[in-house]
Amino acid sequence: MKPLIAELIGTFALVLFGCGSAVLAGGEVGQLGIAFAFGLAIVAMAYGIGPISGCHVNPAVSFGAFIAGRMTLNSMFQYWIAQFIGAVLGAAVLYLIASGKAGYDLAANGLGQNGWGAGYLGEYSLVSALVFEIVATFLFLVVILGATQKSAPGMVAGLAIGLTLAVIHIVGIQVTGVSVNPARSFGPAVIVGGAAISQLWLFFVAPLIGAALAGILFRQKLLETE
């Protein structure tokens, strides 16, 4: 149970702090601040729960680890359950906090949910959103799987992974709000509803494709050190 509790807490923190930076402080910190909130949340959790669960806090990361041969199918599904529960709890607590501000409206202000198209941030197309999420998740998993292989300097893995997530957000917030994480997308979407739910499929499909591509490279030892 320890790894599952750790994954639940880690995903909870990622959604609360990452999405919370957009919802509660977006006007003050801007896109760069939001990007670093997501990245630093991962850095913090990597060192906080990494020794217990590996700090996946992301179903795509668990899927990539499974494809790479580093995780069993059963463990992956257990991690997924913990991650999705943690994400929903994180979004729920964020909503509880945000709704205490005068003038806050769930439909208008949201919870940092992901999306694309007319009315969403940069109004990028479906194709742009799909390509970005696949490529960004692929590169994210290359860093994660590479930084956590046996020959890598383990003490700096959390920093490398967190900074990579920050860079991905700097580039992609205007495109999709950045998912690269089905649980991070799921938590806010189930509370906000509407377009966030109807567009949720992309934030499951694209990250899993990107993670699988990275996992295959490591499984085939193309990016593994001998």
Automatic annotation (TrEMBL):
Principal subcellular localization: membrane
Pfam families listed in its UniProt record: MIP
GO molecular function: water channel activity
Superkingdom in the source lineage: Bacteria
Transmembrane annotation, as ranges: 35-57, 77-98, 124-147, 159-180, 200-218
Keyword terms of this UniProt record: Cell membrane, Membrane, Transmembrane, Transmembrane helix, Transport
Membrane topology: Multi-pass membrane protein
GO cellular component terms, A-Z: plasma membrane
Keyword match NAD: no
SUPFAM superfamilies cross-referenced by the UniProt entry: Aquaporin-like (SSF81338)
UniProt subcellular location: Cell membrane
Similarity section: Belongs to the MIP/aquaporin (TC 1.A.8) family.
Name of the protein this chain belongs to: Aquaporin Z
Species this chain originates from: Hyphomonas hirschiana VP5
